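Need the bound structure for pyridoxal-5'-phosphate, inputs here:
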Amino acid sequence: MPDTSGRHFLQIPGPTNVPERILRAMAAPTIDHRGPGFARLAREVLDGLKAVFKTAGAVVVYPSSGTGAWEAALVNVLSPGDKVLMFETGHFALLWREMAASLGLDVDFAPGDWRSGVDPALVESRLEKDRGHAIKAVAVVHNETSTGVASRIGEIRRAIDRAGHPALLLVDTISSLASIDFRMDEWGVDVTVGCSQKGLMLPPGLGLNALSEKAIAAGVEARLPRSYWDWRPMLENNEKGYFPYTPATNLLFGLGEALRMLNEEGLERVFARHDRHAEATRQAVRAWGLGLLCVNPAEYSSALTAVLMPDGHDADAFRKVVLERFNMSLGTGLGRVKGRVFRIGHLGDFNDLSLAGTLCGIEMGLALAGVPHQAGGVDAALAYLTEEARGGADARRAGAAG
Ligand SMILES: *Cc1c(COP(=O)(O)O)cnc(C)c1O
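Answer from helper R.:
Posting the output first, comments after.
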């Protein structure tokens, strides 16, 4: 029998652990979604989300998974046969490509090695060659959750500008939003796709789109069929604090609480916390003598780390030992890297001690599963976290003295 006392460690890169404050907020009785109380809630969360996307534009919220929000991003701005430039960063990029193709879009899919992000120079050269501006949109996954590689959206924006190309920029921030810095307006992103169950610390069930003025204008001409995902009735109803159909009311209660938590901590400190836990995790992985799937330090993901197994050892057999013995779920390898990597989610409601517990479970699991490694990964991570904590305390004292 697996050991199930204590709490389950849900260390997959989404869904993430839901904090008790959010669980309690969601446990309130469902209210009339056409009443005045609901309108106050809707305005609060729709406005609050803008700060998380760093946009002055509108955000729409669907009762859906992230996949629904992907579809919404495509059908609201594009027409049948439109050319879309996409990049094979990993499993999620592949799935979004398949969706675009099945909707009748003409996808130009730049191949990738599943270990690096989107190369801004490649974006520039592809767009420069497209003199007739046939490409209507560039679609990028910000944080590729299957590989632990984060593409540099700001640099991609500059590449599009250097090419002088008018394509829309669509970005999937499903596993980066509220974990890794993302600046919708500054980076000129036209549609940002998000969802509830990763950095926002909520259960699955909300899909998000943030929209630029240019995206809304493109929607007037767009001819892909759309009904449930149509932004227009959504925006019209949202204006007064309502939805065109029944919203996921209790998830919105949870979203209100999540936004309060992010505000209390401060978004920049949330990002710094994710950076710190990701760095501590990488130090542990190096000390174990294992490899990182991500090859470029400038593209390390702060939301998750994908760890390469030594040859001849199956990642899922190792994950099974960790689940059964330590009641911790680690992320499986997806698609092409199945069995070759496991993924450590260190995003959302997470602190130094949750990371310490996570890394302890991995180090003990490596030993139990007979995976060749060196001891000392946990020690390396704890030493780093201790130094960081000391630095933080010193900085606070210096601040108080000055
Ligand atoms: C999780 C995830 C998705 C899919 O979201 P669902 O809620 O499972 O539909 C898409 N893209 C990325 C980058 C993700 O991490």
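Comments: The domain at 20-263 is CATH 3.40.640.10 (Aspartate Aminotransferase; domain 2). DSSP finds 13 helices and 14 strands in the chain.
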